[in-house]
TrEMBL record:
Pathway: Cofactor biosynthesis; molybdopterin biosynthesis. It comes from Anaerocolumna cellulosilytica. CDD domains: Radical_SAM, Twitch_MoaA. This is GTP 3',8-cyclase. Keywords: 4Fe-4S, GTP-binding, Iron, Iron-sulfur, Lyase, Metal-binding, Molybdenum cofactor biosynthesis, Nucleotide-binding, S-adenosyl-L-methionine. The keyword Cell cycle does not apply.
Length: 327
């Protein structure tokens, strides 16, 4: 699938639920949000059908997200079925890690290729304040369990915020990649949903912290994963340090991804409200060829870039929060 700006779209993130067992301050308010009715969320059979269409059109990599995907029952079944689809080369998972220890064996057996664990701090107090739940020990147990499977790549996703993470906390996160065979990625907070209300660190600030403590960050040229991260090696580190810096280092020119919300709405850009309702087409008896044409049309119209800098205010922005869009 080639869009109007000649980008090859081969990666999709599918949000299998809008439910989550945490309440991270930049994602969900403490009291929660109005949830999508269960009947409006795609069934596993519908996900499989859509991914079969997408694979025929050139999608090769599928990331399963939420909400928190591990709260959805029998997720290993979906993982296993997606790995069987001709053309799908990788099926990966992003999770907050709370339920990872108890489910890791089953999702590994299903054929998962990689797991990303969202973890913004190693401080018990900061974690409880950020997520509104005192379950850091469960997340760390989940990471430890995931590392028992050498064939599954493990990454930690950290969104450092200035109100919660100081230099020492960021260095603690970075040192996790020195002490363990995993990669730590620092992600700039994006001005979406409740993310507009907090202030994060820019990539250059974090690199300065890490460089002053651990030495030179050496650019790592090989690909690690499917998305827009760029990585650095450090002397004495088992893993790499990565950055996803959508605000300070816009990577839209090389964007290769699309998203499907839990309700089956195909989004061709995280920021914008534009897209196509595939659930409606599935449940209205639309033919395979017509659904595939709708997908191709939406992909072709993918915007050139995001406008977190607000330079294109006339384009309709997606007003939903991240748990509703898909993390």
């Amino acid at each position: 699938m080639i869009d109007q700006f000649k980008r090859n779209i081969d990666y999709i993130r599918i949000s299998v639920t809008d439910r989550c067992n945490l309440r991270c301050i930049y994602c969900i308010p403490e009291g929660g949000v109005r949830l999508v009715p269960h009947e409006s969320i795609l069934t596993y059979e519908e996900w499989i059908r859509l991914c079969q269409y997408l694979a025929k059109l050139g999608i090769k990599k599928v990331k399963i997200t939420g909400g928190e995907p591990l709260v959805r029952k029998n997720l290993p079944f979906l993982i296993g079925e997606l790995t069987k689809i001709k053309g799908i080369e990788q099926v990966t998972l992003t999770t907050n890690g709370v339920l990872l220890k108890e489910q890791m064996k089953d999702i590994a057996k299903a054929g998962l290729n990689a797991v990303n664990v969202s973890l913004d701090t190693l401080s018990k107090g900061e974690f409880a304040a950020l997520t509104r739940f005192d379950v850091l020990h469960q997340v760390l147990d989940g990471v430890e369990e995931a590392l028992k499977y050498p064939s599954i790549r493990v990454k930690l996703n950290c969104v450092p915020l200035k109100s919660y993470n100081d230099k020492a906390g960021i260095l603690n996160m970075a040192s996790f990649a020195r002490e363990h065979n995993l990669h730590v990625r620092f992600i700039e907070i994006m001005p979406l949903g409740y993310g507009r209300e907090v202030i994060g660190y820019a990539e250059e600030e974090i690199k300065e912290f890490i460089g002053s403590e651990f030495g030179e960050l050496i650019p790592f040229k090989e690909e690690i994963g499917n998305g827009p991260s760029h990585y650095y090696s450090l002397k004495g580190f088992q893993g790499k340090i990565g950055f996803i810096s959508a605000v300070s280092h816009q990577f839209c020119d090389n964007c290769n991804r699309i998203r499907l919300t839990s309700e089956g709405f195909l989004k061709n850009c995280l920021q914008y409200a534009s897209g196509v309702n595939l659930r409606e087409l599935l449940r209205n008896g639309t033919s395979d060829s017509e659904i595939m044409e709708a997908i191709k049309s939406s992909i072709y119209g993918k915007p050139k870039r995001h406008t977190f800098d607000q330079t294109l205010k006339h384009i309709e922005q997606d007003k939903r929060i991240m748990s509703q869009i898909g993390g």
